[in-house]
Specification:
- The chain has 17 helices and ten strands.
- It is of the alpha/beta class and 437 residues long.
């Protein structure tokens, strides 16, 4: 898989398109980390991870000279918009929890500090595909990975056994399994193609080798409709068109019921899925198992990412060294990472934690799979690098629209992919980015 680095000169040409910021911002913070005579260095951290303040309390107790205060925020685009607005007024917090796909947008708005000098030696703590997302393929480091969302396959082991199905190891086998189930139980479906969460589709494209945004010289290259993603779109579109799988969106009462009653017996998801299943399908506890994502080439170990976030230091921080020190502790210190698992219920990005005590016990919803996290650790080794650009949310909105219509109507997914490509390119040009055709 060939993934090109992001050219930061291109990133800095103009602001992130979908957020309507019109002027590049200049960071105004200094690196003066000395505590004043009135008390310790005070750091503010905008984040959404549940109970993260309890993890920060561990730091505060052990580091009385640097106090971190967590201020809860909404996640996703709302936080990106808020942090850019705050940075424009030179009022950004010292630290921010940022999803990986938001980093190019924040860098292009000059919100984030390069902390390579403070944390660059942490590269070995993380899978290569995850580390690349915080460096944007450059020598800079714009954040430290906090949690990751490696993708995998969840399936009802009891129903697979009942219908004589084998766990698919390739996508070809996956399609055959879907058809076989339809033949044996026409009222059931292996899974659904959902067009209400573009992160799922992005992760599947990553696994196939897609790089949606790259740079060539001073120009952006958008390859959303490139061969790897087209292969994914054609595969899922074909299954929907022939009726081998369902075409309904996820996270609806109907979807919950389908999982809970066994009307759908598998789900392509990520490491955080047990928590969702516990809520969506409470009557099925102990009936599920997890396996690696089916592969395009038999014997491979590639997976995509669906979700995950990082800890970044802002240019507005007057205490960048202290902030970077906390970010490194939070995401690499064994005690801190164990707390992230136990308190915040996240899957840490630090690979040393994947076989640690905090992840020894399987999720409660999977009591019959004691090696759950051992399998996840192996899967994580094959996370494919993701290539994000400055207008991810425009691409995602277009996916929801074009693929939503295609899935509902069982029409051509290829046309939907073309529409997604065109919308992304048009938006980049509209906001002053040069685009290579």
């Amino acid at each position: 898989m060939n993934h090109h680095p992001v050219n930061l000169r291109v990133l800095a040409v103009s602001v992130a398109a979908a957020l309507s910021a019109t002027t590049l911002l200049t960071g105004c913070g200094s690196s003066d980390d000395s505590a004043d005579s009135d008390g310790p260095v005070e750091l503010t951290y905008w984040a959404w991870a549940p109970d993260l303040e309890k993890v920060a309390a561990i730091w505060n107790k052990e580091h009385p000279d640097i106090k971190v205060t967590v201020k809860k925020q909404a996640s996703g685009d709302d936080l990106v918009t808020k942090i850019i607005t705050a940075a424009k007024a030179h009022k950004a917090p010292d630290l921010v929890q940022a999803e990986y796909q938001a980093l190019p947008t924040l860098v292009s708005n000059d919100v984030l500090a390069d902390i390579s000098g403070q944390v660059g030696n942490s590269e070995g703590e993380f899978a290569a595909g995850i580390w690349r997302q915080v460096t944007l393929g450059t020598d800079a480091v714009y954040a430290l990975p906090q949690d990751s969302g490696p993708m995998m396959l969840y399936y009802r082991k009891d129903l697979f056994q009942q219908y004589g199905l084998q766990v698919p190891t390739t996508w070809e086998e996956f399609a055959a399994t879907a058809r076989k189930l339809k033949e044996k139980a026409p009222d059931k479906a292996l899974t659904t193609f959902s067009a209400n969460d573009s992160g799922l589709f992005a992760g599947l494209a990553q696994q196939a080798g897609a790089s949606w945004w790259t740079t060539r010289g001073d120009k952006w290259k958008v390859a959303i409709d490139g061969a790897p993603t087209r292969k994914v779109a054609d595969f899922w579109g074909g299954l929907v068109k022939e009726g081998a799988i369902d075409n309904q969106p996820m996270y609806t009462p109907a979807w919950n019921k389908a999982l809970n009653t066994g009307k759908q017996i598998a789900w392509v998801s990520a490491v955080w899925a047990p928590g969702t299943l516990k809520t969506a399908a409470p009557d099925t506890q102990g009936k599920w198992a997890m396996a690696p994502l089916p592969q395009w080439s038999k014997g491979s170990n590639w997976t995509g990412s669906w979700g995950g976030s990082s800890t970044a230091v802002t240019n507005d921080s007057a205490h960048k060294d202290a902030a970077a020190k906390f970010a490194k502790w939070l995401n690499t210190d064994p005690k801190a990472v164990a707390a992230l698992v136990k308190v915040c219920n996240v899957y840490p990005a630090a690979t040393t934690a994947h076989n640690g005590d905090a992840l020894k016990k399987a999720p409660d919803f999977f009591p019959g799979q004691p090696d759950f996290y051992a399998k996840v650790a192996k899967i994580t080794e094959g996370i494919a690098p993701a290539a994000w650009g400055p207008n991810v949310n425009v691409a995602y909105a277009s996916f929801n629209d074009s693929f939503g219509k295609a899935a509902k109507n069982k029409s051509d997914f290829g046309a939907a992919l073309t529409a997604m490509q065109q919308a992304t390119v048009t938006d980049l040009k509209k906001h002053g980015f040069e685009v290579s055709e």
